[in-house]
Write a structure and sequence with these properties.
With 264 residues, the chain is an alpha+beta fold. It has helices at 83-86, 90-106, 114-128, 133-150, 183-186, 216-223, 233-251, 258-262, and strands at 2-14, 20-26, 30-36, 55-61, 69-76, 190-193, 198-201, 212-214. Strands 1-2-3-5-4 form a five-stranded mixed β-barrel. Strands 7-6-8 form a three-stranded antiparallel β-sheet. Strand 1 and strand 2 form a beta hairpin. The chain starts with a strand and ends with a helix. Residues 160, 162-163, 165, 201, 203-204 line the site of zinc ion (ZN).
Length: 264
């Protein structure tokens, strides 16, 4: 059966002198593995060898979901940022490679996530534009949170997972005196626990040995993602470090690209 879909290449491996094995994240079929026979030949019908992040319309023959599909057609769209554009900035390229690695590891073959496809395409488009390294880190954090949400792993970031006390953002204008009990004061100490997938307050933290204490700025940003735009670089790095630790727990190993991101 021939299937048409829109796809982004998230992994490309040389298979022989002339062919490649590709992993595509497609909009309607989810992740698929496909062989592109002859893609490395000079006059390939695919218009040349595939690079990671190539995107466009594909047609593939899906004989058996246990085996590799065969790619039969490819029409590039140049919608996202290609590898060549991204490779001009190593940090941006590494962020996109990290995104692709996580997408590959957290999704299953033939399990469609159209929203996640759109989010990843938008992430690549934004990466290809003139974003600063801090903006790129913000885009990566938002993509990781979208990935967790779409794969059913959305962390709880608006209240303590254990006692359900709402997290309220510090507001210096309406600050409640420290002598008075308030949720805000309780939440001056905020933690994140991977085990329970969310925030933990000071009253509950003792029961969660894996918790990590968050700075007030990082906790504010996580509970209101709009604050990520314009956040300090150190806050963004703290959040990315936390997400990397969390993703390492989820995957059972540290993602390969992580070390290139945290060295920023
Ligand atoms: Zn609590």
């Amino acid at each position: 059966m021939l299937i048409k879909d829109t796809a982004i290449c998230i992994r490309a491996i040389d298979y022989s002198e002339t062919s490649q094995i590709l992993t595509f994240f497609t909009r309607d079929s989810g992740k698929i593995g496909a062989i592109a026979k002859g893609s490395k030949r000079p006059k390939s019908s695919f218009g040349g060898p595939f690079e990671i992040f190539s995107c466009g319309k594909i047609v593939f023959a899906d004989s058996n979901k246990e085996k590799l599909s065969t790619l039969t057609e490819f029409e590039p769209s140049f919608e996202g940022a290609g590898f060549s554009t991204l490779s001009a900035n190593l940090f941006k390229l590494n962020c996109c490679l990290f995104g692709a690695e996580l997408l590959n590891k957290l999704t299953h073959d033939y399990d469609p996530h159209p929203q996640l496809f759109d989010d990843f395409l938008q992430f690549l488009k934004n990466a290809g534009q003139g974003t600063s390294n801090s903006d790129m880190l913000t885009l990566l954090i938002l993509f990781q949170l979208s990935l967790l949400k779409e794969t059913g792993l959305k962390p709880v970031l608006n209240c303590c997972v254990n006692c359900k006390t709402q997290y309220s953002i510090r507001n210096t204008q309406n600050a409640i005196p420290d002598t008075q009990y308030s949720i805000r004061n309780t939440h001056h100490e905020v933690y994140f626990s991977s085990t329970v997938n969310g925030l933990i307050c000071r009253d509950c933290e003792a029961a969660f040995p894996d918790k990590i204490r968050l700075s007030p700025d990082a906790a504010d940003c996580l509970s209101n993602l709009k604050l990520l735009v314009g956040a300090q670089k150190n806050t963004l790095k703290e959040i990315e470090k936390l997400l990397t630790l969390h993703l390492t727990e989820i995957l059972g190993h540290k993602p390969k690209m992580a070390k290139y991101i945290l060295s920023l």
